[in-house]
UniProtKB/TrEMBL annotation:
One of its GO terms (molecular function) is hydrolase activity. Residues 78-338 form the Beta-lactamase class A catalytic domain. It catalyses: a beta-lactam + H2O = a substituted beta-amino acid. Belongs to the class-A beta-lactamase family. Residues 19-52 are annotated as: Disordered. This is beta-lactamase. Residues 1-19 form the signal peptide.
Length: 370
């Protein structure tokens, strides 16, 4: 049975910084600079460590499987798989910029826990949610706030609701507790998490996708936003929807997300306590039980976050699941599956995601014991 060189998943499980290497100058040095310093010579990079034939064969097989799964599905899909232990990765269109939708809730919770680690946020301090804090779409908190007029909670509860229930109000309130979108962007940058955009918040972003300007009254009933959206001229909705697909304000690449999750799993983004809290929360996610999670064999653990976007004219902008899957032996893989746009039925989307999880499990079984 393989022994993992990392701590157990519950202890510290996330992956190292997903930042890209700094860009290197592409021009050749001039003759003048070369002759001015004859001692300077190019350093020969160290060759990569040799890969065992069995490992190389397993990697090739996984790459072929992922490619086949994606091509069979069609549409705009990006897939990334990262081996948390050694950083090896593969995928399909893994560097494409695709809508995150509620996957971006990861970065709000990351920012909150980073501030906890800095001593700038107390998870247990009371936070008051009022009617004017309500958002749109899925927000179980709405009923509680409207019934009582206010809701008293704390950051720990908001993280739990935002991740496990994908509650938009919980996430939005937490977002402003950490300083708003700019603060989240600064933390992503400080951790070297490139190729991950963070949008303006649920209300502004979802309104923009629909061709609307946000009005707080949309938040107070289940159908307020939908009724306002249905009243928008079709030509305007089409343009707004397509603009979002072409340049998503919350866009990210599957590889960047998978590498960020891998960094988290390796304990490189947060303190040990915050890492444990974050991953344990992701393991309790209730949304998307038939996406990545349903493809995991018995004994595997899945810590994940879904994202689901708006639908226009039968097209859905953003249908995602990203997470960490861990074998009974303790080997962990970060997977990001992002469907930028699709007309495929929901069961077909879920089947595709499950197929990727099963392919990763098959890859794991093919690796030699170490």
């Amino acid at each position: 049975m393989r022994k993992l060189a990392l701590l157990p998943l519950a202890a510290v499980v996330l992956l190292s910084a997903c930042s890209s290497p700094d860009e290197q100058p592409t021009g050749e040095p001039s003759e003048a600079s070369a002759s001015a310093d004859p001692e300077v010579s190019e350093q020969t990079p160290e060759p990569p460590e040799p890969v065992a034939p069995q490992v190389a064969e397993a990697r090739d097989a996984l790459t072929q499987q992922v490619t086949s799964i994606a091509e069979d599905f069609g549409g705009t899909v990006g897939i990334a798989v990262v081996d948390v232990q050694d950083g090896w990765n593969t995928g399909f269109e893994e560097t494409a910029l695709l809508p995150q939708q509620s996957v971006s809730k990861l970065w709000v919770s990351l920012a909150a826990l980073e501030m906890v680690d800095r001593g700038e946020l107390d998870l247990d301090s009371t936070i008051v949610i009022r009617r004017e804090d309500l958002t749109l779409f899925h927000q179980p908190l709405r009923a509680e706030v409207l019934r009582a007029g206010v809701k008293f909670t704390d950051a720990a509860d908001l993280i739990e609701r935002a991740i496990t229930e994908s509650d938009n109000t919980a996430n939005d309130v937490l977002l402003w507790q950490v300083g708003g979108p700019d603060s989240v962007r600064e933390i992503l940058e400080s951790k070297g998490l490139d190729n991950i955009r963070f949008g303006p918040g649920e209300r502004a972003m979802q309104s923009g996708i629909a061709g609307l300007n946000w009005k707080q009254e949309y938040a107070y009933t289940r159908h307020g936003f939908y009724e306002a959206r249905d009243a928008i001229p079709d030509t305007l909705r089409k343009v707004a929807f397509q603009n979002y697909l072409d340049d998503p304000v919350d866009g990210a690449t599957p590889l960047a997300i998978a590498q960020a999750l891998a960094a988290l799993a390796r304990g490189e983004l947060l303190s040990e306590a915050s890492t444990q809290r974050f991953i344990a929360t992701l393991e309790r996610t209730k949304s998307g039980p038939r996406r990545l999670k349903a493809g995991a064999p018995d004994g595997w653990t899945v810590a994940h976050k879904t994202g689901t976007g708006q639908i226009y004219d039968g097209r859905q902008a953003g249908y995602n699941d990203v997470g960490l899957v861990t074998s009974p032996d303790g080997r962990t893989y970060a997977i990001a599956i992002m469907i930028g746009e699709t007309r495929r039925p929901v069961p077909a989307r879920m089947d595709m995601m499950q197929s990727v999880t099963r392919a990763v499990a098959q890859f794991d079984r093919a690796l030699p014991d170490s």
